Amino acid sequence: MITVHHLENSRSQRVLWLLEELGLPFEVRRYERNPKTMLAPRALKAVHPLGKSPVIEDEGRIIAETGAIIEYLVEKADGRLGPPASRDDVLRYRHFLHYAEGSMMPPLFGLLVVGRLGLLGRPARGPLLKMFGEHLAWLDAELASRPWFAGEAFSAADVMMSFPLEAARARAGLDGRYPNLLDWLERIHARPAYAAALAKGGPYAYA
């Protein structure tokens, strides 16, 4: 049985969703953020020294980092929702699997920080939103020609892209200017496995 150490309103919601999509058995240990600092509780340090989420336990292994967990679970499920057959789709799959954290999350985190700085953060907010808007425009154009990020079929790359785009809709300018991205969000939220993951993970601010 896979154990998911799941922090509220975090990247770990993607792991629950993928597990539901793959039909792998799992249990959830849910952690709540400190209401003042919004940081993860110290209890997570007993699981992994960095005290971050997601972390999974499986067959005596402790695995951290969302991308690494996604790849591990796809492999465990005999490649389901993994790299497609087409070479071009494989390259897109790999790109978005890493792009979600490597390119999208840094400016989103920057926006979160400057938002908490109040007046001091205002000068930085405009440039960050402009930079992030370039990402949104490109992603919207990408989905104009195909339904899913890797190609014609839903894959784990879509799971990885869910959190940054959900966070973008909440605080980084994802709105009606990007209809293909909004349509994609509606379609992932309508998936039965997504709803099942929400039920198991508890309240989630970005759904």
Please provide a written account of the structure.
53% of the residues lie in helices and 10% in strands. The chain has a four-stranded mixed β-sheet, with helices on one face. α1 (13-22) packs parallel to α2 (66-76) and α1 (13-22) packs antiparallel against α5. The chain is built from seven helices and four strands. The model has no long low-confidence stretch (mean pLDDT 94). The chain has two domains: 2-81 and 193-201, Glutaredoxin; 87-191, Glutathione S-transferase Yfyf (Class Pi), Chain A, domain 2 (Up-down Bundle), CATH 1.20.1050.10. With 207 residues, the chain is α+β, with helices and mostly antiparallel strands.
How many E strands? Answer: 4
Helix content: 40-55%
Q: Please tell me the overall pLDDT.
A: 94
In spatial order, strands of the major sheet run 2-1-3-4
Name of the level-1 CATH class of the largest domain: Mainly Alpha
Shape: globular
Supply the CATH architecture of the largest domain.
Answer: Up-down Bundle
Order of helices and strands: EHEEEHHHHHH
Examine the coordinates and then state which fold CATH places here, giving the name of the CATH topology of the largest domain. Answer: Glutathione S-transferase Yfyf (Class Pi), Chain A, domain 2
**Oligomeric state of shown chains:** single chain
* Residue runs with pLDDT of under 50 for 5 or more positions: none
Computed structural class: alpha+beta
The number of domains is: 2
Main sheet record: 4 strands, mixed
What is the gyration radius calculated from CA atoms?
17 Å
Q: How large a portion of the residues is in β-strands, by DSSP E?
A: 5-15%
Q: What distance lies between the first and last C-alpha atoms, to the nearest angstrom?
A: 27 Å
- Provide a count of the helices: 7
GO molecular function, one term: glutathione transferase activity
EC number: 2.5.1.18
Domain GST N-terminal: 1-81
Protein name: glutathione transferase
